[in-house]
Amino acid sequence: MLTALTGTQPTGQATSAETSTADVASAAETGTSSLTSQGSEQCTGSAANVAGDPGGDDGGGGFTPDAAAVATAIAFAEQQIGKPYVFGGAGPDSWDCSGLTMVAYQAAGVDIGEHSVSAQVVTMKTEGRLLPFSDRERGDLIFWIGPSGGFPHVAIYLGHDTILAAPTVGENVKIQPLWSTPDEQLYGMVGRPTGTP
């Protein structure tokens, strides 16, 4: 269980492009992808350490990720460290959160969905790739959920409570600790883009 949030800093602005969890579940059940046309969500939030990490860094739960594909995606994302966040950015000189995750996994030959957090959640759900947060492993997609039920942010999990992300306006792509705020909380599921469900 996630507890003891510390180090809260001011957050960025929320986006109107959030999609509700009910919409994601509905799209996944019906096999539609109408959510994918909504565009990118602005990635917001602030770093706050999350105490009580239950593990899941190596050998979490669920199915085994493809180590080579994960390594390729993370290596690509690491090469983007220091480049600025720009809403709607999908490289090569600037990134937003879902653009970074999308292109990093494309570099590994893996389709995780279109350039929006909601589309990536829908793709993971539709393909049976959502797993409990406690089962997270290196390379998994970490999602945040907003107060309206939308998905404002995504990052690549590196293990040991760290992520690689394009955080928000005014920040650069970076490695940072897992964080959660009252307005953007860690979603209870992670996406595992690789491996066989």
TrEMBL record:
GO biological process, one term: proteolysis
InterPro entries xref list: NLP_P60_dom (IPR000064), Papain-like_cys_pep_sf (IPR038765), PG_Endopeptidase_C40 (IPR051794)
Compositionally biased region (Gly residues): 53-63
UniProt domain NlpC/P60: residue ranges: 67-194
Keywords: Hydrolase, Protease, Thiol protease
Positions of the UniProt region annotated as Disordered: 1-64
Stretches assigned to coiled coil: none
Family membership: Belongs to the peptidase C40 family.
UniProt-recorded name of the protein: NlpC/P60 family protein
Protein source organism: Humibacter ginsenosidimutans
